[in-house]
Amino acid sequence: MLRPFLTSLILFLLLLAACAEPQTSRVTLTLQEMGFSQNEIEVSANQPVTLRLNNKDGYAHAFDLDEFDIHLQLAAAETAEITFTPTDSGTFTFYCSSPGHQAAGMAGSLVVVP
Ligand SMILES: [Cu+2]
């Protein structure tokens, strides 16, 4: 009676462990009219994240995340992807480094939860 229960429990725990394996999370950000489509992105530490950046404007934008040494230039109507793995938890500012854009509102927070 106990043995099938224990076997089930062990299988269940193995399944949980398999699900806890790092998986790449995907986030899509649209850059349009001096703004990002999300001002806050939440990701998990030590889990790869792929950011898809979609510039819908007819002029250049950028995506900058200094703490992760990410500096992407996006030409008009360009889409780009970058994958990185945040190791430290905390809140980090992302912004567009095109002159004047951050001041106009192109900034947000990347929140890395432990
Ligand atoms: Cu911009």
Which key features would you list for this structure?
114 residues; three-stranded mixed β-sheet; binds copper (II) ion; Immunoglobulin-like; alpha/beta
Descriptive account of the structure:
With 114 residues, the protein is of the alpha/beta class. It has one domain (23-113): Cupredoxins -  blue copper proteins (Immunoglobulin-like), CATH 2.60.40.420. The chain has one helix and nine strands; from the N terminus they run αβββββββββ. Strand 5 (61-65) and strand 6 (70-74) form a beta hairpin. The longest helix is centred in the N-terminal third of the chain and has 18 residues, at 2-19. The chain binds copper (II) ion.
Mean pLDDT: 91
CATH homology superfamily: Cupredoxins -  blue copper proteins
The Rg value, from CA coordinates, equals 19 Å
How many domains in all?
Answer: 1
Indicate the CATH topology. Answer: Immunoglobulin-like
Order of helices and strands: HEEEEEEEEE
Strand order of the largest sheet: 2-1-4-7
Q: Uncertain spans, ≥5 residues at pLDDT below 50? A: none
| Beta-strand content bin | 35-45%
Shape, principal axes of CA atoms? elongated
Distance between the termini: 40 Å
CATH class: Mainly Beta
Number of distinct beta strands: 9
The largest β sheet comes out as: 4 strands, mixed
Bound chemical compounds: copper (II) ion
Question: Any guess at the CATH architecture?
Answer: Sandwich
